[in-house]
Amino acid sequence: MKDFKTLSLISGIAMLISCFLPYVKMGVFQISIFDVVSNDIATEATLLPLLSIISIISAYLNRGIIARICSSGVLLIMLYAIFKVYDAQAGAGAYGVEINLFSLIGIGAYVMLISSGLSILFSKATIE
Residue 19 contacts by C-beta under 8 Å, 6 or more apart in sequence? Predict the structure, then answer.
């Protein structure tokens, strides 16, 4: 059971570190979640580092259910952002502009998606 706590902590730390990695890349132009939050604090992106920190603290304090809820929140925010990009892609397709989602997403988004899923998996209700 101690391995689950370690893996939950590692995935939570990976979620937090991914906030500083580029999420969106267009040529040489790259944006991280930290850049978005530092420009405007009142966005949905503010919840990502906040929920990541809460997930790390609750996994450390053996509160697995809270860590799982916070990691689920991160995953839901990421899936919502992907849905918004797909919706914009469909809207731009009506005007003949093609947007490829996988050419826009940076390494930070991939790390956040994978680490939030792993954190949900490894955050057990009772971590011993």
Answer: 32, 33, 34, 37, 48, 49, 52, 108, 112
Contact 12, 121 (CB under 8 A): no
pLDDT per position as a tens digit, 52-76? 999 999 989 988 889 999 999 999 9
- Cβ atoms of 117 and 75 within 8 Å: the answer is yes
Written as one string, the DSSP assignment of the chain is -HHHHHHHHHHHHHHHHHTTSEEEEETTEEEEHHHHHHH-SSSGGGHHHHHHHHHHHHHHTT-HHHHHHHHHHHHHHHHHHHHHHHHHHHHHHTTT----HHHHB-HHHHHHHHHHHHHHHH--SS--
pLDDT tens digits for range 5-43: 888 899 999 999 998 998 888 778 888 888 888 887 767
